Each structure stands twice: as structure tokens, then as C-alpha cells.
Amino acid sequence: MTNRTQESGLDPDRLQSALDAVHRAGMPGICAEVRDGDGVWRGASGVADLGTGRPVDPDMRHRVGSVTKTFTAAAVLRQVEEGRVRLDEPIGAYLPELVPGERGRKITVRMLLDHTSGISDYLPYAFPSLKGLPVLKDVSPASLDDNRFREFRAAELIEMGLAAPPGGAPGGPVGTYSNTNYLLLGEVLEQVTGVTAEKCITRDVIEPAGLRNTSFPTGTPRIEEPHSLMYESLYGLIEPPRDYSVYDMSWVMTGAGLVSTVAGLNRFFRELLDGRVVGRESLAQMQRTGPVRALDGSKKLDYGLGLTRTEAPGGRVYWGHEGTVWGAGTTSQTSADGRRQMTLAINLMRWNRPDASGRPQPHAIDGALAALHQLALG
């Protein structure tokens, strides 16, 4: 645990108590780093392994899910700055065989970045046993296990999303969140740079931001460095929750495949918002937001180009992203002035239990997490 909180707005005892409350509510393990100016607090509560009781540690690596999208978006903006990509160019100009015809002419790079392309998410087709979510009727975890060691090709997943009924018209007033968009952006990066998207993002974003312990998995379903197990409940359909920390991440690489730490993500968002990952003009483009329906339809996000905008109860604006994969969740938020930050990582997902209609209901973990957010974000 790290504490450097003098002359800051951080209260270590209250922050630790808030973490402990999330653990007591049913979360196996949670860790976080909260920063206020030069003050930093890093803490953890609970276990990384329910079987052995091994404690969770804030230095552990973690699958950060869709926080990856901010990295991918930043890499695309770097290519815009170098003149290889134009935000309002039709996607067919870069990927004519993958997105041919009218869609290729109407959908732009910007629409992929801000989820207004109308292209549907491929997940219900790659994981067919989950197609009924968020209602649990006829849903099972079979696809999660079937795909544990399956190696998907990005083009295969993209084709599933393109073949699905559209989520809306290109450039519509309300976007629909879709992982397909960010796999297409990965293909654009490969097309214009001549290297894999993962190498491009590492070279142009991860390394310039000075990040350690942040990388895409390469050639293995395992996280080699110290990490927590990652427990998936799937709304009570997997009981007891099952560990999915060993998983082939080809199902979502440039959309949600990164591994990092809570400190690494805080550093990334500080560097990004200070104009040291992309230029100020590019950052301004990333911060142009509009409404986007979340993947489960539960809420609307205020979404830019790989960034979400949220407002804390006191009125302070935060930029960041949330992410989930099987068994792991991450939230990273940084105030617009860069002074206040919170990144947290949890190792149980979809803990809510359904009512008689099959819809997941609120859980004590939800309230404890909300209280932690409010305290940490000030």
C-alpha cells in the first residue's frame, strides 16, 4: 500500500474503509489508486484467489477491458496527426474489401471512434449462448467455456457485426456502443502503418506515455506477471463464480484486450489529458461528445472519441473509460484539470441476481462501489 497524502484532499482511512465495504458486500478483491495533486493513495481489500486466500495487491496486473478503447483511439489520432488517416474519410477508403458498398462510403473513421457508425456488436454472435442478455431467459455460460482457447481473427468478428441488423443509421444523433467499431479501427491502423495494431498502439501510445506493465497479450491466454484470478458469475448462472483469468483474448483485442495496473492507467490518462500522448487539437477532437447507448442498453454514455465524460455530484468533470471482460472490471476517471484521479480494478463481474422476469437486480456491491466512487472523486 502506498500513501503520500500530505496537503492533498485524500483521507487514507476513509478510502480504505470504502474499499473494505466493497469487499464485505461480496467482491472477492478490489484495488485502487486515488490521486489528488501530488498526493497518492493506493490500497486493496480482499483476495486474489478464493481458493488459497492470497491477498489482492494494487501492483497486480489486470485485464482492463474497454479502457483499451482509449488507447486505440489515441493511436488513430496519432495517425491523423501524421497525415495517414483523416477522421471524416469514409472507412471504405482504408478497408474497401472489409467494408464495401454503401456502408463503406457512408461510415467514417470518426463514426467508428464515437460509436455512431450503426454497426452492431459481434459479441452475441461470437458468444451465441449469451444472445438474450440482459434478460437471462435461454442464456447460459456455454459460449464462455467454448471460446476460452479459441483464436478468433479480427476479420471474422467484424463480419459478424456487419452481418447483424444495424444498430442505427451512420452518423445518427444517438450512437450504439459496439466492439466491432474498435476492431475495424485496429484494421485501419494495420493498413496505414504496416505493423499489427498492437505493435502500433505500443509504439505510439504505451511507450510515449512511459507506461510499464501495460501490454497486449501475445501468443498466450495467460497473464504471466502477478495477477488476480478473475471470477465470472454471469448473473448467478455460474455458481460458484468461475475463474476466467486464463483466456484467449483474440475475441476483443483492440477493443478490450489490454493488461495494465491501476497506477499505469492513472499515468496514461494524466499524460493523455496533458497533451503528451496526442496533441491538443487531437485531444479536443477526442473530447467532442455525444449520447451513446451502452452495450446492455441500461444507460446512455456521454462519449467522445474513445473517451467518456462524466460529472461528479459536486460538478467536477471527469474523463476516462470503464471496461469489463469475463471476470474483471476496471474504471478509470481523471478530472478535466488532471488533479484528481481514480482507477479501480475488481475481480468479480455480473454479480447481480435476476428477479422473476429474468432481469438482474441491484446488489449491495453496486451501492458500495457508488459510495467509493463518490468519495474517491471528491
Question: Brief overview, please?
Answer:
The protein is an alpha+beta fold. Helix content is 31%, strand content 18%.
Task: Give a description of the structure.
The chain is of the alpha+beta class. The protein has 13 helices and 15 strands. The protein has helices at residues 12-24, 68-81, 101-106, 109-113, 123-126, 142-146, 154-163, 179-193, 197-206, 253-256, 262-273, 280-286, 364-377, and strands at 2-4, 29-36, 39-46, 62-63, 175-176, 231-232, 242-243, 259-260, 290-293, 300-303, 308-311, 317-325, 328-335, 340-346, 348-349. The strands form 4 sheets. It has a 7-stranded antiparallel β-sheet, sandwiched between helices. It has a 3-stranded mixed β-sheet with strand order 5-9-10, with no helix packed on it. A hairpin with a 2-residue loop joins strand 2 (29-36) and strand 3 (39-46). Helix 1 packs antiparallel against helix 13 (364-377) and helix 2 packs parallel to helix 8 (179-193). The protein is globular. The two termini are 21 Å apart. 49% of the residues are buried.
